[in-house]
Amino acid sequence: MHGYAGRILHIDLTTGKTHVEPLNEKYAKKYIGGIGLGIRLLLDNSKPGTDPFSPENPLILTTGPISGTMWPTGGNGHAFVSKSPQSFGVGESKSHGSFGTELKRAGYDAVIFEGKAEKLGYVWIDDDSVQLLDASHLMGKSPAETEDAIREDLGDYYIRVAAIGSAGEKLARIACIINDKTRAAGRTGMGAVMGSKNLKAVAVRGTRDITVAKPEEFMEFVKEFHERMKGPATQKYRTLGTPLNVLVHNSVACMPTRNYNNASFEGAEKVSGETMNERFVARIIGCSSCAMRCEHMCVVQEGPYKGTMTRMEYETLWAMGPYCGVDRLDAIMKGMDLCNYYGIDAIAAGVIAGFAMDCYENKILTEKELPGIDARFGNHEAMVQLVEKIGKREGVGNILAEGVKVAGEKIGKGAEKLAQHIKGVEVTGYDLRCLKTAALGFAVSFRGADHNRHGAYGFDVKGKVNRLIVEKGRGKMVKDMEDQYTIIDSLIVCKFSRGTYYKEFEDMAKLYSLVTGFDVTAEDMRRAGERINNVARLFNIREGLGRKDDTLPYKVMHLPVPDEGPSKGAYVTQKELDFLLDDYYGSRGWNKDGIPSIEKLKELNMDNLIHIVESKTGKAKKAEED
Amino acid sequence: MVKIHERKFVSADPEKCVGCQVCEYICSLTKEGAFNPLKSRIRVVRINQLINLAVTCRLCEDPPCVAACPRDALTQSEETGLIMVDEDKCNGCGWCIEACDYGAIMLHPEKKVVFVCDLCQEQGEPQCVKWCPEEALDLITSDVLAQKARITAVKKLFQEAMKVAPTT
């Protein structure tokens, strides 16, 4: 087998036993790898209704068929998949760096962590040797400190480590898993699942050769993509980076500000990508095998946050900046640094800080719950304090670390309405009131509020559609993007490189074929993308999610954009949302409850999963009869 | 009359290197037919994210690796300066590895003899230089390296001077 390692490693953390099963070749072709393979393995290896923190909930780590090769951006990816403690549906998050390539060289397409270790431990995968080692000396350490300590313990500088911080140990639902110090599998609480297993870190060393089926043609293709990556498709990432979005979003008033009270930010210039690059970017670095490099490393040289060093991207900058009304980049960087230190999703942390500020402004949270924190919007010190409290689960941070949905419910007194999330997962930096194609994409995303499952905001922001209205056809637009994005995340290649696949599925099919030797067409790839979206939906359906959960945050549906300008007055009505959902479900071949039809599953060769649909539609019928 | 140094070796510009390891992948592919950094003649070091540098053999004038070998398995080519390994004589003892200040000579994980950069003699040019997406690698002589460093330093000094000049 080329591309694939052909092996899946099972590690039972309760007993310490491991076994290797061969990768099912049919699965490989049908679900590709990365999140696709991971979600299918999750479905197969878990029982319905399992609590995400139960030892019965497997944590699945996957590489893609491209991992380990020198495919630009494709060599280095890995994904974590599990049942999310935020959405109680599919949890998945990817990361890049050097971890995935190492895991592939160790000889695994997937590692399935089952059970729960007796005490805090870490797994050391050294090719075929797999050990569960004591991690009591690593308790409370940051992921970066853990990485250094493990390299020191095991005596090899090139060992790659993915670890949780103290937030993951304490089961904060927004905990992430960080590798290579600044790269995070951030979303949907995968770090909390890891923590629930008493698993502090996974350390890997792989020494196997990685070969591809057609090396000469593959290298020709690599060369072509090296050229493409020097061109306009990646320019944004190579120059200002994603923070370029700040001024773009602000100019069309689609940047949620002060917990969605506004859609534009008067301090945008101060926190723009332009300002960040001029004043803070010390170096731009790249992941293993990348030919475009994007990672903007920022250093704060002076002031109260002097000495802070972190990577910075738009989403996290937005969350701890405009979303909290904060117009100081140095404070935002401090907040980001703290998120990396404690191991929490920085998007979630910023959104929760903004939520807490909104609660404070509305006197739902007071001095009593927030001693010493003057949590007014715009107070950079308060934002940093809140992020720290969340990271430590200290004081009010203990509740906030549960995620904005749970925090809203626990705090009560109307706080639920201030909690902006979808399926329990915090919103990201696109104002859905005035980006209605994106709103649909966010509503139906199988991992909750997210821009990276569809990228549908592109149609709205670039003006390819009227972003303020809903109309027929948006459903298919979102579906097509989703099918492409699941392939990107299953191969795994970097989303920032998506623009270099000029022929989209055709280029991806060619890449996959050259690496694996399987003869795959663009249509096969598209179908695999569609299949992966369906299998994710089936998992969510099995876990009890459905149309009712394909919804939008409270303010998106009840608080029209107040800002003067192009988005004024925009919001999404229930009628509009229903229209969008019907259009989308229709284009997917799902029924009006959002359940895949048996015909669709047959068409996608998913016959053995029809029972999930039957059990639900059967139940639905029975309920109607009763 | 003195002779200009002609020995060229691969050197990474610390200002340009981003630590992407493309050089490691292409090196192992070229020399060993597979992607595997452990078989690469050039290795990347990343320290604290900000410092990234690819390191390989610098073809020293008086190479300590050659001097250290107790079995005379290593020689330096008079003509090119390349370190040549006699794989029959090498027993993988590692004295040369210890002697090299740059970690540029390594023990092959399968052959159990040492290996080192040969500037891709068979290919005619070092493939890492050709493939580096950042153009951070150069095939360069020490004289030219010195010139470059000198020019950079002077430019920097000049910039500092310019900043001070207008106000004083």
Explain what the structure shows:
The complex is a heterodimer of chains A (626) and B (168). Chain A has 626 residues and is of the alpha+beta class. Chain A folds into three domains: 7-205, Aldehyde Ferredoxin Oxidoreductase,  A, domain 1, CATH 3.60.9.10; 229-426, Aldehyde Ferredoxin Oxidoreductase Protein, subunit A, domain 2, CATH 1.10.569; 436-550 and 573-625, Aldehyde Ferredoxin Oxidoreductase Protein, subunit A, domain 3 (Orthogonal Bundle). Chain A contains 26 helices and 17 strands. Chain A has a six-stranded mixed sheet. In chain A, strands 8-7-12-9-10-11 form a six-stranded mixed sheet. A three-stranded antiparallel sheet of chain A has the order 13-14-15. In chain A, a hairpin with a 6-residue loop joins strand 4 and strand 5. Chain A starts with 6 loop residues before the first strand and ends with a helix. The model of chain A has no long low-confidence stretch (mean pLDDT 97). Chain B has 168 residues and is α+β, with helices and mostly antiparallel strands. Chain B has a domain at 8-56 and 117-164: 2-Layer Sandwich (Alpha-Beta Plaits). Helices cover 29% and strands 18% of the residues of chain B. Chain B contains five helices and eight strands, in the order E-H-E-E-H-E-E-H-E-E-H-E-H. In chain B, the strands form four sheets. Chain B has a two-stranded antiparallel ribbon with strand order 1-8. Chain B has a two-stranded antiparallel sheet with strand order 2-3. In chain B, a hairpin with a 6-residue loop joins strand 4 and strand 5. The model of chain B has no long low-confidence stretch (mean pLDDT 93). Chain A binds chain B through residues 68-70, 72, 75, 98, 105, 158, 181-182, 207-211, 215, 219, 226, 229-230, 282-293, 297, 299, 309, 311, and chain B through 18-22, 25-26, 29, 32-39, 46, 48-50, 52, 109, 131, 133-134.
